[in-house]
User: Fold these one by one.
Assistant:
Number 1:
Amino acid sequence: MKRAIIIGATSGIGRALANILADNHYLVGITGRRTELLNEMKTERPQMFFPKIIDVDRTADNIDVLEELTAELGGLDLFIICAGIGNFNPNLDFAIEKNTIQTNVSGFTFLADWAMTYFVTQNRGHLAAITSVAGLRGSCHSPSYNASKAYQINYLEGLRQYASRLKMPVYISEIRPGFVDTAMAKGESLFWVAPPVKAARQIFATLQRKKKVAYVTKRWSLIGLFLKLVPNWLWDKIV
Ligand SMILES: NC(=O)c1ccc[n+]([C@@H]2O[C@H](COP(=O)([O-])OP(=O)(O)OC[C@H]3O[C@@H](n4cnc5c(N)ncnc54)[C@H](OP(=O)(O)O)[C@@H]3O)[C@@H](O)[C@H]2O)c1
């Protein structure tokens, strides 16, 4: 039996992924801040789910909890960072930007490094993180969200190089969703919105193949290509 931890498993993509992993015989460490949702999930699958409260923003405070959870699971094969926040910020309120940076940049980095160190020490493992197509370009509507996702994309590329130089079977997967029907998907001009279960199924297939980078759903790779190619003057008009 394999073992996974999902950071941010209480709702949306993380919760759907937790269920798919359990369906595929993984013991799953489920984490988040909302205790009632963790308890609800534990009741649904008492043999497969191992809940722990983890607030990503508390960085170093989480070491003991992560070690405890890994021991309860009996090891760790897969670590998925799904937790993230994002808000529109039309007035450039620094409190909003600061919260986003704390969770999506500082908290993310701490967890990615913890998992990487764990996997390097045991000489194998798989780190995955949910980034976003939003990380490919800047946005006037949510500058810190797009910038934080760009940071994650870049950071994971760095970790992939780190693992590759060690010549160890430690894999890094970076998953870029388009719109998925969760509390995070805000705004009125949404399109190609995927149900969380469909997104999670595609993510799991990607993880099984240890893909380095994947768009979810698959057709969002077209938007990814467009975002990479569109010139600045045009992007500034349409964003
Ligand atoms: N939905 C989309 O359209 C979309 C598109 C592209 C990328 N994404 C990315 O997908 C990921 C998952 O989002 P989602 O769409 O599934 O939204 P969601 O339903 O709002 O889920 C967010 C998850 O992150 C957790 N979380 C947030 N802040 C946290 C913190 N400080 N500490 C611990 N956990 C925290 C939440 O748990 P608690 O509240 O219980 O702590 C929850 O489990 C995010 O990284 C998001 O950027 C989403």
Note: The longest strand covers residues 170-177.
Number 2:
Amino acid sequence: MALLKVNSLKKYFPVKKGFMTAPALLKAVDGIDLSLDEDRVFALVGESGCGKSTVARLIVRLLPPTSGEVLFQGKNVFELSGDNLKAFRKSVQIIFQDPFSSLNPRKSILDTIAEPLKIHRIVEKIRIKDKVVELLNKVGLGSDILNRYPHEFSGGQRQRICIARSLAVSPKVIVADEPLSALDVSIQAQILNLLQELKREYRISFFFISHALKVVHYFSDSIGVMYLGKIVEHAKTEDLFREPFHPYTEILLSSAPTIIVQSDKDVRSRNLKLRTDMGEVPSPIDIPPGCPFHPRCPKKFEPCDNIIPELKETDGRLVSCHLF
Ligand SMILES: Nc1ncnc2c1ncn2[C@@H]1O[C@H](COP(=O)(O)OP(=O)(O)OP(=O)(O)O)[C@@H](O)[C@H]1O
Ligand code: SF4
Ligand SMILES: [Mg+2]
């Protein structure tokens, strides 16, 4: 059984277009299915605004869905309450892109990391400080920072503190929403290595969102490519990088900025953006009919502008394109 499963998940936001008109629906997530197995990394990629963070927030129940379900160990997380909800919150942690706004500036590092230990009664009161030091050591920080405050640290150090805080509850899954994008290039590789080490040591599964295809190639086992709220290709990482099937995936991979990599420890990330001649992504308020990618697709043919392609299995992967 998959550890985490997402079924037909939708999130539509009502948005006001004008004063007198009824709100339009922005289809941020438009019916996606995916699953994450134990000790695995599933990566979600796609251009800005395609709905990646919305999926992340739905999975950890920071947002209610319009419809669909997220199953964690077989239970629908939107139906959890009381102790079951508390257990879910402990098992599934989220880390965000911006480690600056994820930490309370008025809490010392000791209090920041002690908080989840207290809420979930992980260790006896008397052992809390030792446990915090142990967690800091795990993420490469020392006990000298216990009484310091978030503003005294760099982005990379803050991200380490956020990671230590999520490790405090021994999560089974970490949802990481672009955890490297806000960091300096040299620091990105260090944090990526840290995540890799923690994954090995604790067998944590990751739901990993990233703009950086090189990072995704290195870190993930399988990938979902998102376009306008839908998954258009879902494949094993090696298969996808060896031969992308969906025309959008193909263009994404070929448009990735030239990545300067000296070794796997030096990974640069920039925003994913299609080549300039591909035009802009259509608005999620006004999704094109037929295949949503058809206005930009160099391979479009007869049925593409009026028949929506289904996500179908082809050669061990899922693709939504009339060519397959
Ligand atoms: N609370 C909200 N109300 C209205 N629209 C929203 C809300 N949150 C997100 N959106 C819209 O939903 C769409 C998907 O946003 P989301 O943040 O999930 O994209 P993303 O793929 O994470 O983008 P990025 O790569 O820039 O982080 C966007 O058009 C965004 O403007
Ligand atoms: S269905 Fe048609 S428009 Fe859509 S990706 Fe495939 S070929 Fe391109
Ligand atoms: Mg986002």
Note: Residues 258-270 have pLDDT under 50 and may be disordered.
